[in-house]
């Protein structure tokens, strides 16, 4: 099963439920890296809106890896404009998830390549965000040639 | 069919028995102030002998060893000495009780090593819980010992530590809770399959629990020819399968269990223990103390005649009587008061006996299987029956056969530093084990080991 080639394509609205499942798995995984990534109670409802908006928006790109009729991987990219810097265009990967059993088969890389092909006309750079403590992601992206460029720090004030 | 099943099956009486044994044990431990000590093994005819055994004469062997460190096995007790190393993070069924509290258990293990295998074993408990520290400490200790027995270290840390030490340590490293338990399970399984006319290749097996013993058992099952998709593993959260919600977390925290989830369970079964057992031939459970963890009506849904290993201590996941009345033909437990005790003590003394006698560099899974085969074959020679699939500890000839099988396998795999025939290994093991038993007998006779107080 894991040797089959997936079909890569842009997401449709009818994919929304399966995409949401995959993205919720990713968010639940993030819980492992920091208590501030605790998944919210209403994540399912909010997540549905998020997925549908992303599929409909011209400023986002959502692509899926499909095996049979099953979605086994998803990538969600924000197409951002860098006002102050060059190059101007940034395809920013916000979510990338592949079902565990299909990992190590290059599906993640294929999804990224698919996105790069899709945004070829815009040019620019590709960036990605993930929790600092996720060492598996660090090594995955570094193997693909990504390098660190931006730090995000967090403070939770006491507000008294 | 009528079955005679021993053991106390009333939980209250059971608890009373356990409390009583604990009280006696505490009293006797205090009386003897422990169970092992260090004794000379060379003659002391007069104090002049110290110039041979110690300075200046001892410089001779030291210089030779400095030129060839392998001579330390010949000129010192290193070749018969192992360390029992623990951080006290998962002791018996007591959990994380700390290194000092683990010491009586480690001394007990050392006693068994000596009495059953003629192996000198010394307890080393460590005030650290980090895998990194454990690995480093064992490597630092390695010049003193011929081998290391890791003991009572919690999962998944024990997997990290064993895997790293098997690669990095210059001496053989064994984790009894993984390899010892898995080896005796394989021996019992071989005979149970034979008795029910099954082959491993065509069997479907449910493994209940996914801790140290289960992970190692899965590895030995695959090595022995069980197709990965024919194994169903069930942990406290249910059957492992590739779509389980916690799989991402497992990939980070417990890659061993993660691999099992991805690779086993070809039919993608979901559910709990009940669902895991349906239409399987064998249930091997090293999960949680029972009774009632495995229900008789679930056993009834297995393929008959079914095989049940309910190995939790102190109480099996299901009482043997209940399992048998629900269609189980062969039941094994971890207890000595029921037939078919699946007991690590049948394995570890012999494995290290064989390993040390050929100065092996490591203990491979193939060596474990050689020990399992020797154990199973011995029970076959004595006559297999539903109540006799394994030898018992008092049939101590079996340790010499196991040790010889382990040593021969190490030689065949190119891991031994010395070459011996199977017969030489068996005779060597026999002499060493006999000497250990005789010494205890003699010390007791002479009153140097005091009689047990009333």
Walk me through the topology.
The complex is a heterodimer of chains A (160) and B (454).
Chain A: E1 7-10, H1 16-30, H2 43-56, E2 60-67, E3 70-81, E4 89-98, H3 107-118, E5 125-128, H4 135-143
Parallel strand pairs in A: 4-5
Antiparallel strand pairs in A: 1-2, 2-3, 3-4
Helix pairs in contact in A: 1-2
Chain B: H1 11-32, H2 50-53, H3 59-67, H4 72-75, E1 81-86, H5 99-117, E2 120-125, H6 131-141, E3 147-150, H7 157-168, E4 173-175, H8 176-195, E5 205-208, H9 212-223, E6 231-235, E7 238-239, H10 247-253, H11 255-263, H12 273-277, E8 282-285, H13 296-299, E9 306-310, H14 320-325, E10 328-333, H15 348-357, H16 365-382, H17 397-412, H18 422-445
Helix pairs in contact in B: 5-15, 5-18, 6-7, 8-9, 8-16, 10-11, 15-17, 16-17, 17-18
Question: What do these coordinates show?
Answer:
The complex is a heterodimer of chains A (160) and B (454). With 160 residues, chain A is an alpha+beta fold. Chain A has one domain (7-143): Aminopeptidase (3-Layer(aba) Sandwich), CATH 3.40.630.30. In chain A, 31% of the residues lie in helices and 24% in strands. The longest helix of chain A is centred in the first third of the chain and has 15 residues, at 16-30. In chain B, α5 crosses α15 and α8 crosses α16 (365-382). Residues 1-8 of chain B have low confidence and may be disordered. Chain B starts with 10 loop residues before the first helix and ends in a 9-residue tail after the last helix. Chain B contains 18 helices and ten strands. Chain B is globular. Chain B folds into three domains: 51-171, Rossmann fold (3-Layer(aba) Sandwich), CATH 3.40.50.10380; 180-333, NAD(P)-binding Rossmann-like Domain (Rossmann fold, 3-Layer(aba) Sandwich); 344-445, 3-Layer(aba) Sandwich (Rossmann fold). Chain B is α/β, with parallel strands linked by helices. The A-B interface holds A 25-26, 28-29, 32, 99-101, 103, 136 and B 242-243, 245, 247-249, 251-253, 258, 261-262.
């Amino acid at each position: 099963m894991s040797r089959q080639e997936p079909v890569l394509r842009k997401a449709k609205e009818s994919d929304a439920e399966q995409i949401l499942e995959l993205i919720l798995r990713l968010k639940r995984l993030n819980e492992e890296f920091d208590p501030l990534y605790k998944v919210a109670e209403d994540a399912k409802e909010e997540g549905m809106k998020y997925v549908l908006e992303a599929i409909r928006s011209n400023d986002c790109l959502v692509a899926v890896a499909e095996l049979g009729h099953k979605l086994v991987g998803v990538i969600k990219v924000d197409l951002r404009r860098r006002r102050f810097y060059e190059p101007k265009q940034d395809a920013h990967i916000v979510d990338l998830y592949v079902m565990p059993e299909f990992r190590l088969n290059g599906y993640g890389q294929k999804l990224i390549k698919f996105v790069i092909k899709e945004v070829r006309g815009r040019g620019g750079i590709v960036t990605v965000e993930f929790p600092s403590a996720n060492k598996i992601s660090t090594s995955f992206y570094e193997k693909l040639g990504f390098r660190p460029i931006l730090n995000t720090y967090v403070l939770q004030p006491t507000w008294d | 069919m009528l079955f005679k099943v021993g053991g106390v099956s009333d939980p209250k009486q059971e608890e009373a028995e356990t409390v009583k044994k604990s009280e006696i044990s505490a009293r006797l431990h205090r009386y003897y102030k422990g169970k092992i000590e260090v004794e000379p093994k060379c003659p002391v005819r007069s104090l002049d002998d110290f110039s041979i055994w110690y300075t200046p004469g001892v410089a001779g062997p030291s210089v030779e060893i400095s030129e060839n460190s392998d001579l330390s096995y010949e000129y010192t007790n290193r070749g018969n000495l192992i360390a029992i190393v623990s951080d006290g993070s998962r002791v018996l069924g007591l959990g994380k009780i700390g290194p000092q509290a683990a010491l009586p258990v480690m001394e007990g293990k050392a006693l068994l090593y000596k009495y059953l295998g003629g192996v000198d074993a010394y307890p080393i408990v460590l005030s650290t819980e980090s895998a990194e520290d454990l690995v480093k400490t064992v490597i630092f200790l390695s010049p003193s010992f011929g081998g290391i027995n890791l003991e009572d270290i919690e999962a998944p840390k024990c997997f990290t530590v064993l895997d790293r030490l098997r690669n990095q340590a210059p001496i053989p490293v064994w984790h009894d809770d993984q390899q010892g338990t898995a080896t005796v399970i394989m021996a019992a399984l071989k005979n149970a399959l034979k008795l029910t006319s099954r082959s491993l290749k065509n069997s479907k097996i449910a493994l209940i629990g996914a801790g140290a013993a289960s992970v190692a058992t899965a590895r030995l099952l695959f090595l022995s020819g069980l197709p990965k998709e024919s194994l169903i593993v069930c942990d406290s959260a249910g059957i492992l399968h590739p779509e389980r919600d916690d799989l991402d977390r497992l990939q980070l925290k417990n890659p061993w269990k993660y691999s099992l989830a991805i690779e086993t369970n070809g039919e993608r079964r979901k559910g709990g223990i009940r669902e895991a057992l349906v239409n399987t031939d064998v249930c091997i459970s090293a999960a949680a103390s029972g009774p009632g963890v495995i229900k008789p009506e679930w056993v009834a849904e297995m393929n008959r005649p079914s095989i049940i290993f309910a190995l939790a201590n102190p109480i099996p996941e299901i009482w043997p009587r209940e399992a048998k009345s629900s269609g189980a033909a062969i039941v094994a437990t971890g207890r000595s008061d029921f037939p078919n005790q699946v007991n690590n003590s049948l394995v570890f003394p012999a494995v290290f006996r064989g390993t040390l006698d050929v100065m092996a560099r490591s203990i491979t899974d193939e060596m474990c299987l050689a020990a399992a085969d020797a154990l199973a074959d011995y029970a076959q020679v004595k006559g297999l029956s539903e109540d006799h699939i394994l030898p018992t500890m008092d049939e101590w000839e079996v340790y010499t056969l196991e040790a010889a099988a382990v040593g021969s396998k190490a030689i065949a795999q190119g891991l031994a530093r010395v070459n011996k025939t199977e017969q030489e290994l068996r005779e060597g093991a026999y002499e060493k084990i006999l000497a250990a038993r005789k010494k205890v007998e003699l010390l007791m006779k002479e009153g140097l080991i005091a009689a047990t107080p009333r």
